[in-house]
């Protein structure tokens, strides 16, 4: 009998150690190296960059994109100087929050040198993003680098070429300086994996940075990047943006290219997943979208909708047009927001009305049904591929992987007939919700991003405030409004609280005003399908009119 000599399977711990050693080696190659970082770190690390970085690095990395980019395009700052500054700040961000899978100093500096040489020869930038460092979520393919999607068993999956989105941004002059962490399965509103551990919130390390683009959220909050690329199928851009007090856009599906990412459900359109921008300022989001769409990416990626970027004009009374109408959704009928979120909505209502904007109550509509449809369509194979990807390496299941795949009663392998049924339910719900929106006449809806601010680790089990809009394929923009104040944001006494559901009761028990004190309070502005420009235009308009955020953010 012949015998096949297979090499013994490596323990998952050895692969995880290799992953972390590789990341640490990329950071150690940085020149000059970072100074030693003390241990233990304080819970809030936002002030530490001023201690460990040079004045020049701090000066460059403190600029928002709308101030930084003109300096690059005019040649006032070189691509090498800006890339070097962001490499150092990204490396420090990793030391403070565990937000990177790898730093890219050699690749990024080589690219920056090319850009500087081009500028010196031609006396002009190569494109609209000339020299701008951009951070990239790990599952977005980068030639020659790994695409794990958060699984130990995917450690040896190597991208053969850059994802389409990276090709576009590189042609515009971008520099990719680092890759950011993601959770196991990428289906957590948390950022934890067995490859890299837990990414923590820079405002409080005992709390979540959000997920699945949690590495991007933490990095941006610490200004280790000013523009990053995330992805979203249930809140994965908006959750970390809100938790970390930065900006994020979930675009309408099939506008931003997705070809070349590593994703378990890539190509399955039962629930459309999207790539989108996250940034330290609102203009960064519009810049990303316009830059990408101006290249007409649908010419080479046929699945995309051939819809160019359109400038949006705010309706104004003085031109005898109707007023801008903003609807406020105070809760979704399933889970009530925690006190800081409700306070932010009240303050926004007062500020919007003071700015002459019409504000209406936007009633929720069958949001519990939305989750039943979504949860049935997320894993149409019953989660078999995800489970196999976890079990094949013997890595342990993370708590939120267990929750979404094993404890979710809607997860089951669907027959063809059952799949058709749930797709029909999806389309019926979309039509029903369109009718509901039409009756209100609002331009956009202002609502919570989640039922609370950044939660404690492994407790983010309610997705309804973000995933609803994935089901509808509506674009949503997240922006910071204020911060939690433990003296003001006091929880209603038990006797005064009436739970809307069992989920509401559970969520209400998670509120901890002391643990959440000082955390970002963010909200979400949502528009109808393909209203991405409208959502961003109104977000910028109300940001200026209302003076957002109401408190200073880093």
UniProtKB/TrEMBL annotation:
E.C. number(s) listed in UniProt: 3.5.1.4
Keywords noted in UniProt: Hydrolase
Domain Amidase as annotated: residue spans: 82-536
GO MF assignments: amidase activity
Enzyme active site: 137, 212, 236
A Pfam family it matches: Amidase
InterPro entries: Amidase_CS, Amidase_dom, AS_sf
Residues engaged in binding substrate: 186, 212, 233-236
Gene3D superfamilies for the chain: Amidase signature (AS) domain
Catalytic activity entry: a monocarboxylic acid amide + H2O = a monocarboxylate + NH4(+)
Family affiliation: Belongs to the amidase family.
Protein name (database record): amidase
Species for this entry: Clohesyomyces aquaticus
Lineage of origin: Eukaryota, Fungi, Dikarya, Ascomycota, Pezizomycotina
């Amino acid at each position: 009998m012949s015998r096949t000599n297979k090499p013994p399977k490596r323990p998952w711990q050895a692969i995880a150690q290799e992953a972390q050693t590789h990341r640490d080696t990329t950071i150690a190659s940085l020149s000059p190296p970072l100074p030693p970082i003390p241990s233990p770190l304080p819970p809030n690390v936002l002030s530490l960059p001023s201690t460990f970085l040079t004045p020049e690095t701090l000066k460059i990395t403190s600029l928002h994109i709308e101030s930084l980019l003109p300096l690059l395009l005019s040649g006032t700052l070189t691509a090498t100087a800006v890339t070097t500054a962001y490499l150092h700040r990204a490396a420090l961000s990793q030391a403070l929050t565990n937000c990177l899978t790898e730093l890219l100093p050699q690749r990024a500096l080589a690219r920056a040198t090319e850009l500087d040489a081009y500028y010196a020869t031609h006396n002009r930038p190569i494109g609209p993003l000339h020299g701008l460092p951009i951070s990239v979520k790990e599952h977005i393919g980068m030639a020659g680098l790994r695409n794990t999607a958060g699984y130990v068993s995917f450690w040896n999956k190597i991208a053969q070429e850059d994802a389409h989105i990276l090709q576009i941004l590189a042609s515009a002059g971008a520099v990719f300086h680092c890759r950011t962490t993601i959770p196991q399965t990428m289906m957590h509103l948390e950022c934890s994996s067995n490859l890299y551990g837990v990414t923590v919130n820079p405002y409080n390390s005992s709390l979540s940075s959000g997920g699945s683009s949690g590495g991007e959220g933490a990095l941006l909050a610490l200004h280790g990047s000013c523009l990053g690329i995330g992805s979203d199928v249930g809140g994965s851009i908006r959750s970390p943006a809100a938790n970390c007090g930065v900006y994020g856009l979930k675009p309408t599906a099939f506008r931003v290219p997705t070809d070349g990412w590593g994703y378990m459900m890539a190509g399955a359109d039962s629930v459309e997943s999207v790539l989108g921008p996250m940034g330290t300022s609102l203009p960064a989001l519009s810049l990303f979208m316009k830059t990408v769409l101006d290249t007409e990416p649908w010419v080479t990626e046929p699945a995309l909708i051939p819809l160019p970027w359109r400038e949006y004009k705010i309706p104004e009374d003085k031109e005898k047009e109707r007023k801008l109408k903003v609807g406020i959704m105070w809760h979704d009928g399933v889970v009530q927001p925690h006190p800081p979120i409700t306070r932010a909505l009240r303050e926004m209502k007062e500020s919007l009305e003071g700015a002459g904007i019409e504000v209406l109550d936007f009633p929720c509509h069958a949001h519990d049904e939305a989750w039943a449809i979504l949860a049935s369509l997320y894993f149409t194979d019953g989660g078999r591929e995800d489970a196999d990807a976890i079990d094949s390496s013997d890595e342990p299941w993370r708590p939120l992987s267990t929750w979404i795949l094993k404890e979710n009663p809607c997860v089951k392998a669907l027959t063809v007939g059952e799949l058709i049924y749930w797709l029909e339910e999806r389309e019926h719900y979309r039509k029903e919700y369109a009718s509901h929106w039409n009756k209100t006449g609002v331009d956009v809806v202002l609502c919570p991003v989640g039922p609370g601010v950044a939660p404690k680790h492994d407790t983010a089990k309610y997705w309804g405030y973000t995933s609803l809009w994935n089901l509808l394929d509506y674009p949503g923009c997240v922006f910071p409004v204020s911060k939690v104040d433990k003296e003001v944001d006091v929880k209603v006494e038990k006797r005064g609280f009436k739970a809307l559901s069992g989920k509401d009761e559970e969520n209400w028990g998670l509120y901890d005003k002391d643990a959440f004190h000082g955390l970002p309070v963010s909200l979400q502005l949502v528009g109808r399908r393909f209203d991405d420009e409208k959502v961003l235009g109104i977000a910028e308009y109300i940001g200026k009119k209302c003076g957002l955020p109401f408190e200073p953010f880093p």
